[in-house]
Hints:
By secondary structure, this protein is α+β, with helices and mostly antiparallel strands.
Amino acid sequence: MFRDGKLHKSNRTAATSGKTGTTISAKLNSHLQESGVATKPLEDWLQGLLVSDPSLKLYFNGRELQPPVQV
């Protein structure tokens, strides 16, 4: 976990599974959200990362992101 741009705590869980993948979770500091910082461009960029690896799971502000819809 990063707080104010510095590593505060690491949460790694050893798991045995037939499935592999990486999960990344991020929550913006509440004062940034309240001040009206535009989070949509960051969310869009993160969604674009999901296209590169189907086993990647991203959570942003408590919500799992889905890959962008391919048209």
